[in-house]
Fold:
Amino acid sequence: MRTVLRRLRPELPAYPVITVGGTNGKGSCVAMLDAILRAAGYQVGAYTSPHLLRYNERIQINGAAADDAAIVQAFARIDAARGDISLTYFEFGTLAALELFHQAGVNVAVLEVGLGGRLDAVNVVDADAALVVSIGIDHTDWLGMDRDSIGYEKAGIYRPERPAICADPDPPRRLIEHARAIGARLIQANCAYDYSRTGDAWRWRSDPVRFNDLPLPALRGEHQIGNAAAVLATLHSVRDRLPVTAEAIHAGLTQVRLPGRFQIIPGPVEWILDVAHNPSAAAVLAAQLRARPCCGRTCAIVGLLADKDAQGVIEALADVVDEWRPVSLTGSRGRTGAELAALLRSAGIQAVAAHDDIANACQAAANAARADDRIVVLGSFHTVAPALVAQPWLTAYPLLQSRET
Structure:
């Protein structure tokens, strides 16, 4: 990566770089950073993964996805520059994003880590500030079996003498040790900064700076306040290079959007789309569902990749779901709906109907739904994306009637 990047651009990026890693919450934090920085008047390049519907979503410049021609041209330049060096799919994409950010003359780039941190492609760039949002158990084949090992991998995005923000309220020992060992400026939640909610507003403090009466983030969920607090800590750490006003913070928090994260599609039958794919994310989703009770039944359409902790996801959601429709995900990492159904039944859950196709599962759930029911689609980008394409909430509901009838 470094060799190919030097061939493409021998000079270091002229713009500041903010790198965001973590088990969960990366996408939300990137979206809030992007929204606040753009509200402050900066030209922002944002690189995220994976995408929902189109690859172009991964490379955003000033809120707009890069077009096909620009991406293809960047790929061609990378292919010429790499010579006999082999690059992965994600490495090609990361280099393309950096190429397009350079061409666009962005003022700042926000890069989302794909997997881990230490060996991730985005770590080829030295971050001016690096945020680790959370540390949970996921991708254990690559990152290790415990939070200490995973935390060390994620701390690999930290740099000496530069801000190293950790929003996890219980940071693993090895993450802290690594940050201190390299001389990073460790900024911990509930230590270097704190926050609290007061009704429909919240406050943030890092002495001597305070923000009171902040609007709740447009992204739903109590956990998004913690994500927003980490974003403010990150921006505060680079305020000399990227100053933002209170007005920009207000605008960014209220205008931020992120499909597939507790995305609500209202109607007589409410649909909720969430890419939660590990036990910690599923626990957050369960808390959100409890905080938003429905009068009818909750149906979960769930598809999970084979390397995910399906048992942990099921346990986290068991008490908020009335019926399950497990679906098959294709590809080498896919898991069948029948396999998920067997796990559900072994957990004592009997209201289970397996499907091989997500669109069919969505339509079957719509056909069975009554007024005031809700349908939750979860488990993966590979589950939510086909539901967005199918848009089953636009079809008629044969059983759409009040519960009394």
In short: DSSP finds 14 helices and 16 strands in the chain. Confidence is low (pLDDT under 50) at residues 401-405.
